[in-house]
Amino acid sequence: MKLQNKLKKIPVSPGVYLMMDAKHEVIYVGKAKNLRNRVRSYFRKNTDNRLYTEHLVQTIADIDFVLTETEKEALILENNLIKQFKPKFNIDLRDNKTFISIRLDVNDTFPYPRVVRQIEDNGALYFGPYASTRAVRETLRYINETIPIRKCPDSVLKKRTRPCLYYQIHKCMGPCCGLVDEETYRGLIDQVALILKGKHEDLIDILRKQMYEESKAMQYEKAAKIRDRIRDIEETVEKQKIHSMNFIDRDVFGYYINGNEVYIQVMFIRAGNMEDVSSYHFSSRHTTIGEIFRSFLNQFYSQTRFIPSEVIIPTESEDAELLEEWLSERKGKRVVVICPHRGEKMRLIEMAQKNAENAWLVSQVHSRDFTRTLHALKETLRLQQIPERIECFDISNTFGKQAVGSMVTFEQGKPNKSRYKRFRIKTVGKIDDYAMMHEVLTRRYKRAMEEGDLPHLIVVDGGKGQLGVALKVFEELAIGNVDVIALAKGKTANNVTGEKIGEQVFVPYMPEPIMLNPSSSELLFLDKIRDEAHRFAITYHRKLRAKEYYKSPLDEISGVGTARKKALMKCFGSIEGIRNATVEQLIEISKLPPIVAHAIFHHFHKSEEAISHE
């Protein structure tokens, strides 16, 4: 009744709707130009051909709405909510690719262009994101050849006492040694910004004026250098004009469907050249290809990426015009979304479709090969079952300090990072890898037994001793239907002859280890799992070590959190500066409450106060 009442009161407005199940978990997010018509269509018979509608409607227990001013706002909000809730009936585009930009820190004294992957709100100028690393390299090479700005990083700039080779060949003006003033250098950075903005003609006009001024002042050598710079820029501009007459930037999409699987292929064409290809895999059991593409395109371009002049898609999208408007606004130029039916663009679609089909074929070959690998592991290692899900453990510590354990999970040959786990050793205070492994395995499988979440195979990094620890844990927890092995790295058996022993696999109740062929797919797979567990453990261990290393004396003071620590360091520059500050300075300069200022002063002057009392 609650849901029916909500359906009667749905507003006629653009917005986003969130469908929830009986547990009040969001299971689907959608956007609409008219919320009333869109949401009610799900509950009408024979009005929606989408495969997932009937199953979705049976699961819906409640619906919420978020009204927006425009459909474009609804589109952006839909993307954000999908990322936030990850509803099971929406496709979730997980694209780990980060795109490169160029940053100019204009607030620095002598800035220079740097390559970055994150755009921050820090007052710097950002240009991009660029389509490829090659495009960035070419842009920076052109800037460094044309404009005599510094090339060295801050760490080198501060330590340099004499100018480098770039100064000698007139490719840098030597800001490291005070050979150029800030105003002159700032003029060079303005020229760099014009290049990055594509305003070459404006830059040429500025340089021509400088050349004439130097010539009038009879600084003929400087005028000649500016003349050469103008010539280089004009040649580059001319090449770009010729190149851009026939080629434009395009993203071309294709797809291939087989059963419930959909493979989407994207070809990135830049200036007529195929620069990159990306492949994405989704399940289609909940929706149609039209719905998948609509959601895919919206999520794809919501990320920070290069936006081309043309987006070529293989199926009609109800959001095509909306997407055009949104992308044009972000790019600052007109962007067109095209679904061609013939001609050159259709041939590009066909190429992308073939690539998508090939991606599916490759995945099938990999799946068949991997199935053979799993069966071979079962036979060779005499396992009880095919190891479709494997959990691997590793221990990392430095002389017993900051000891940690790691567990990685592989399912059907691929890492499942959502199942990775980290363990901080709690009960072992000395160097004892066996005791640490016993703690980690006990903690993991005591809970796994309660939840009925056991894998098919457990791999521990080490030799016969580590295997014995795992078997002891199995005995204590009464686990009898899971296979366990230990994987030991190869070592030198004879220091005189240099004879080496390869990787050894220790299996329960076998006196000698099994030696797998070094080039076999089974051993390569086991090595991959063990190396991933080691990497995961080392990463966590380093994080804890770094946290301990960077511990601040301010951490011991009540009332001083992260924000106040940053403010104090900004105001006084160092711990020593804070130590030397008076209570009045702490209050006045860093705007601290008197009670906190007194606590800080007292912390740094305990010994002095004790002596004065004596």
Provide an overview of this structure.
The termini are far apart. Helix 9 runs antiparallel to helix 10. The longest helix is centred in the middle third of the chain and has 37 residues, at 344-380. Mean pLDDT is 82; it is low at 47-51, 241-246 and 610-614. It contains 21 helices and 20 strands. The strands form five sheets. Strands 12, 13, 14, 15, 16, 17 and 20 form a seven-stranded mixed sheet that branches. A five-stranded mixed sheet has the order 9-8-7-10-11. By secondary structure, the protein is an alpha+beta fold. It has five domains: 2-85, GIY-YIG endonuclease, CATH 3.40.1440.10; 101-244, no CATH class; 250-359, 2-Layer Sandwich (Nucleotidyltransferase, domain 5); 389-544, Nucleotidyltransferase, domain 5, CATH 3.30.420.340; 553-613, DNA polymerase, domain 1 (Orthogonal Bundle), CATH 1.10.150.20.
